[in-house]
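Why should sequence recovery work at all? Because a backbone constrains its sequence more than one might expect. Tight turns favour small or flexible residues, buried strands favour hydrophobic ones, and helices have their own preferences. The token representation captures these environments compactly. In the example below, the structure is given first.
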């Protein structure tokens, strides 16, 4: 039995990793009490205001069903984080076994903000967007380093910029990480990729900024240094 499981893991590392992550999250959603973030002092970020508004719209308040939906929502988000960690590690190490071992940590620990190594809600929800954008950039950089046609994939950097901009809106401290990503692209002499990423980033932030002002919401009120 153990040998068959080991063979399945070796043949399908990503699938086996996600099976483990899903099984843990099913147990947590069913048996762990609490909403998943109500025990932490959080900063008044835009995403939290949106979640509070969504709770009022649903009209479920602090009911048992609201608690269940909250835990399920965080569990689904964390699955995306696990997926991105695996794919980024696979690109960096070019070794699925090493990527599986590293991604096993978030698969077990990163389930919801108060169950694992991440406590801040904004960080928890912004991390998947940051990792997704980083994964796109890293993949295109690998293709570029392999001397493949970079012009075909240039629009991918714009998509990455959009994802990174959304991560800033959810977790504004990610701007520091994004600055490092842009600097690394420049150091790799991928100036076009850095420019395309920056354009996607700025345009997305401008659109979101405009929408917030149209809704009579001051974006600066959600930023605390």
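From this structural description, the recovered sequence reads:
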């Amino acid at each position: 039995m153990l040998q068959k499981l080991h063979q399945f893991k070796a043949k399908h590392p990503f699938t086996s990793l996600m099976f483990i992550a899903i099984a843990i999250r099913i147990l947590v959603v069913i048996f762990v009490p609490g909403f998943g973030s109500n025990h932490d002092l959080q900063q008044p970020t835009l995403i939290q205001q949106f979640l509070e508004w969504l709770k009022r719209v649903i009209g479920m308040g602090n009911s048992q069903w609201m608690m269940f939906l909250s835990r399920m929502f965080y569990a689904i988000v964390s699955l995306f984080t696990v997926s991105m960690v695996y794919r980024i590690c696979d690109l960096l190490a070019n070794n699925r076994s090493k990527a599986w071992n590293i991604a096993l940590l978030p698969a077990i620990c990163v389930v919801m903000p108060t169950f694992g190594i991440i406590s801040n809600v904004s960080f928890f929800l912004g991390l998947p967007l940051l990792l997704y954008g980083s994964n796109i950039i890293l993949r295109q950089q690998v293709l570029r380093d392999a001397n493949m046609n970079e012009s075909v994939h240039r629009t991918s950097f714009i998509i990455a910029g959009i994802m990174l901009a959304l991560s800033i809106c959810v977790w504004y401290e990610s701007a520091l990480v994004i600055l490092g990503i842009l600097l690394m692209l420049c150091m790799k002499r991928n100036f076009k990729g850095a420019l395309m990423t920056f354009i996607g980033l700025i345009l997305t932030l401008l659109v979101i900024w405009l929408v917030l002002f149209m809704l009579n919401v001051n974006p600066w009120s959600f930023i605390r240094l």
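A few observations help interpret the result. The radius of gyration is 19 Å.
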